[in-house]
Amino acid sequence: MKLFPSDIEIAQKNKISSIKDIAQKLHINEDDLELYGKYKAKLPLHLQQQEPKGKLILVSAMSPTKYGEGKTTMTIGLTDGLNSIGKKAIAVLREPSLGPVFGLKGGAAGGGYAQVLPMEDINLHFTGDFSAIEKANNLLSAIIDNHLQYPEAHLQLDPKAIVWKRVMDMNDRVLRQIIIGVGAKGNGVMREENFNITPASEIMAILCLSKDIADLKKRLGNIYVGKTVEGTPVFAKDLKVVGAMAALLKDAIKPNLVQTIEGNPAIIHGGPFASIAQGTNSVIATKMGLSLGDYVVTEAGFGADLGAEKFLHIKCEQSGLRPDAVVLVATLKAIKHHAGLTAEECKEPNVNAIKKGFCNLEKHIENIQKFGLQPVVCINAFPADTQEEYDVLIELCAQKGVKAVVSTAFADGGKGAEKLAQAIVEQVATASANYQPLYASTASIESKIETIATTIYGADEVVYSALAKKQLQSIKELGFEHFSICMVKTPASFSDDEKMIGRPTGFTVTVREFEFASGAGFIIPLLGDVMRMPGLPKLPNATRIDIDDNGVISGLS
User: Fold this and answer.
1) Residue 240's domain spans which residues?
2) Do 288 and 399 fall within a single domain?
3) Which of 163, 149, 141, 79 is nearest to 116 (CA)?
4) Tens of pLDDT along 449-493?
5) What's the pTM value of the predicted model, to 2 decimals?
């Protein structure tokens, strides 16, 4: 039996076009390209129109499993599928983080014959956006500690009231809680410090929500740092560092143009995780795609209870964007997992398990419908799947009023996604999308959290730790009650317990503590034991990655 080639083998064997040729497909003037070699380019902000005319397709998924559902792969495949049936479509995606690349999940450039290229560059540093975000974040941290070192010359910051954290784009659990300023007096004021991973940085969130440089600077200035010894709130603008931070982000704010394996345009920009941040690419990139193409296919991280909910309540509400269609990606193996089957059992045909595990996908379908949107289910095909199982799943979806289509984009590229593409075109043509948020900005913080927990997750109630209650009161006193909610929780379950698979009921959601992003405009409840600085697995992906004497990289996935 011939083995299917690895993602990196497929990517390296593919003939890649000059990025100038890709830009021509979008009628972008060559003078507007800021070239990063032959195959990558930055795009200027003026390419986004005030009222773009393209149609927006959001790709989300059922609750993820360790097997991988292929949401990014299906997003790229659908883009190629739309182009294959004669539509002008652009994929607009997030940038991969080095944390998962070297950790457990691997890269985020698609898979099989539905990838974006150059795959190695996109997964490793790319155009330096993450580095710029990290530097802007840590510049603010350095300025804060400089204020502590010279209190007589600066603001009288209270070291115990500082909430701003340093960041690094790597999974490194030992940085979650550390002590800095140890040793001589010249080493700084000793205090407790915490690191987030770069995708969870508020700078990342701000970059992805800003509409232009002026908006970026305003949001940067609104970052809450802490308090003075007298209790006065301190923001980044009070530290006179906003201009320098924005200068570090002057290139990072510009979207990146690359291509799919089939030579179709893809814009990649920003990379917040959906489990610990808002989980969607930048507003600028999305609007630019809608200005340059007729269809934009974008994705929101993890399951629809995280990425899609945040896309709709945070990105849409702050930008005015509205999806014209929604795709929910599912696999038979994931459905069997949510039926309670073991890894070995998931490999075998099992119609009854499809019926039992459908409850998870069913809940995601219902949740999307609550927003006034009618999803299309994309069944990502795998070799061990059977037609009988497909037929059962398609019928179960039909009973919910939803069309389900099998996609073989992983193995067949755009051709394998043509049926899905046609279903999306038909869905968009009905103009039935009538997006409505589930909560108003004027609702209380507790009410917003309860709406998400009970309506989206299916929880019975929400409880708060003593610490969370104290932090919640402080947030209200700062006047941030009108902010959106950005939940931090496990992606593996609707609940805050990853072991509760399927469609759990009768559970309680516990908010253990709060963070907030005043520049980005959202409150961050932390549920369960999810951390904003992940750790590495026992056997990290980094141990499999190598480069030869000719500069050819291997082991990326």
Assistant:
1) 129-248
2) yes
3) 79
4) 999 999 999 999 999 999 999 999 999 999 999 999 999 999 999
5) 0.95
